[in-house]
From TrEMBL:
Record's protein name: Glutamine--fructose-6-phosphate aminotransferase [isomerizing]
Residue range from the parent sequence: 246 to 611 of 611
Alphabetically ordered keywords of this record: Aminotransferase, Cytoplasm, Glutamine amidotransferase, Repeat, Transferase
Stretches assigned to the SIS domain: 43-182, 215-356
Record-level Gene Ontology MF annotations: carbohydrate derivative binding; glutamine-fructose-6-phosphate transaminase (isomerizing) activity
């Protein structure tokens, strides 16, 4: 059942080259620069004219939503707000018929997300779902949607469902951009060609496993851990922290790297591991200065870097390389070593990684 892996979580981490590919299958045509999302195609006209998208979700799915915010705003130039479903539904939010609400849920059964959808529906908004479980309550309630096709996820900690959600949001960002004319055809060809390679690059990212395991052995007894990133790597930092805390019970927090100086820097001492997503993209130089600030306080830096990087390598305690890709696709690769890090630390601490204490796979209570 576990296909030779010790845990479902590890099996599901290793399934990601396939699950990401399945998620894109029949939806992208790189040479033509075309994205096709059959599930939402009836709403093409609506997408041309919207001025706001609200994403509602919980937990890991909310983190995927934050990645989606960066991508949709960047490429489709529509303003996006990402809300915890549980907060949104109790706030008397301002929603109109002009709004598009995107609900993200692996299980399709999360009570708060369901309630947020019902509220938005009452106010006349159009609701799209991004779900994994086919025919679950949420996809039956939404007006339209796109399935993630990641296959059943058994491990309570979400892994392949997250990367599939991010993949769908990436496709949606380009789809909406294509409809609205906010991206050129040649750029679309370029991006989709690169996106098409991502499953292979995920495979390469998984090769960091043995190295990550050694890093895990070094930090398994930590009591705290900080995860920092900027731009779309900020939600990846949040997700890395959530994975670690939920399965290893180590207290972990994710922050935008620039916010470190506004508080979390006080926590840094010679016992504190700080995980940076420091790939060679727009905030590279800024993240390097954040790394220097941590090193000046004797913190231990573990950095996810672009392959061949030398600058971060010179100052970090440990580096984990991921393949070079466009900034838009970094979340799909940078997430992989963070999942592996959480997994190995939890196993070394003797935790039940597939069924962490107090957690359920689908949260049908509010
Ligand atoms: C974390 C995790 C949870 C879920 C959250 C939402 O690993 O699994 O945070 O992401 O309970 O669940 P869904 O996506 O089923 O609505």
């Amino acid at each position: 059942e576990k296909g030779g892996y010790d845990h479902f979580m590890l099996k599901e981490i290793y399934e990601q080259p396939r699950s990401v590919r399945d998620c894109m299958r029949g939806r992208i045509y790189p040479q033509q620069g075309l994205v096709q999302l059959g599930g939402i195609k009836e709403y093409t006209e609506k997408l041309k004219n919207i001025d706001r998208i609200i994403i509602v979700a919980c937990g890991t799915s909310w983190h995927a939503g934050l990645v989606g915010e960066y991508l949709i705003e960047e490429y489709a130039r529509v303003s996006v707000e990402v809300e915890y479903a549980s907060e949104f539904r109790y706030r008397n939010p301002i929603i109109t018929e002009k709004d598009l609400v995107i609900a993200i849920s692996q299980s399709g059964e999360t009570a708060d997300t369901m309630a947020a959808i019902e509220l938005a529906k009452e106010k006349g908004a159009t609701i799209f779902g991004i779900c994994n479980v086919v025919g679950a309550s949420i996809p039956r309630t939404t007006h339209a949607g796109v399935y993630t096709h990641a296959g059943p996820e058994i491990g309570v900690a979400s892994t392949k469902a997250f990367t599939a959600q991010v993949t769908v949001l990436t496709l949606m960002a380009f789809y909406i951009a294509q409809q609205r004319g906010t991206i050129t055809q040649s750029k679309l060809v370029e991006y989709l060609t690169e996106l098409n390679e991502i499953p292979n690059l995920v495979e390469i990212a998984l090769k960091s496993n043995d190295h990550v395991k050694k890093i895990a052995a070094r930090f398994k007894d930590s009591t705290n851990c900080l995860f920092l990133g900027r731009g779309s790597s900020f939600p990846v930092a949040l997700e890395g922290a959530l994975k670690l805390k939920e399965i290893s019970y180590i207290h972990a927090e994710g922050y935008p790297a620039a916010e470190m100086k506004h508080g979390p820097i006080a926590l840094i001492d010679d016992e504190m591991p700080v995980v940076f997503i420091a790939t060679k993209h727009s905030s590279y130089e800024k993240v390097i200065s954040n790394i220097q600030e941590v090193k000046a306080r004797k913190g231990h830096v573990i950095a996810i870097v672009t392959e061949g990087d030398t600058d971060v390598r010179a100052m970090a305690d440990y580096v984990i390389e991921i393949p070079q890709t466009a900034e838009a696709f970094v979340p799909l690769l940078a997430t992989i070593p963070l999942q592996l890090l959480a997994y190995h630390i939890a196993v070394m601490r003797g935790c039940n990684v597939d069924q962490p204490r107090n957690l359920a796979k689908s949260v049908t209570v509010e």
